[in-house]
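Hi R.,

Here's the chain you asked about this morning:
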Amino acid sequence: MAGGFRHLGDRLVHQGYIWHVAVAEFESPDGERFQRDIVRSPGAVAAVPLWQADDGTPMVTLVRQYRPPFDDLVVEVPAGMRDVPGEPTELTAARELVEEVGLEAGRLDHLVDMYPSAGMTDSVLTLYLATELTRVPRQTHGPEEAHMDVLEIPLADAVAMVLRGEVHDAKTVIGLLLAERRLREGTAG
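And the predicted structure, written out as tokens:
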């Protein structure tokens, strides 16, 4: 029981390829029963690829990809679902870097585990800082990845985009700000 609340059970209303939707029943501390729709998810991973240009400028590699829920192009750090059962998050992050941006990380440092949308899903997103990067061939999957743009931009410019409200994706906002802080503190790998 968390804070006196009790989860009484789930009723599956939709089973998708990766996610499923349940109507979950709960009991409040004073005994009131209530229901909430919850998207059950295996979780996701993301990584902020941080590297230095030849002149020493800290750079990041981002993607701009089509996101059907918004019918728009969204700037993001490389990321993906935990769609391989039992695969450690670090390996999923490494695989997504290769697939999406053609980078192999020599080092992945854990930044944070976050709840991307605590009011509607049980998804946990594990965010890494990827350094010691080597270029490898991309291995895209699906039409969104096949048509995404890979962006290599100075970290300072990416952070400025966040501060101007030009980056809307939560994991990317958090990842870029944490990467910039790690770099400033000298703990960026």
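The chain has a mean pLDDT of 95.

Let me know if you need anything else.
M.
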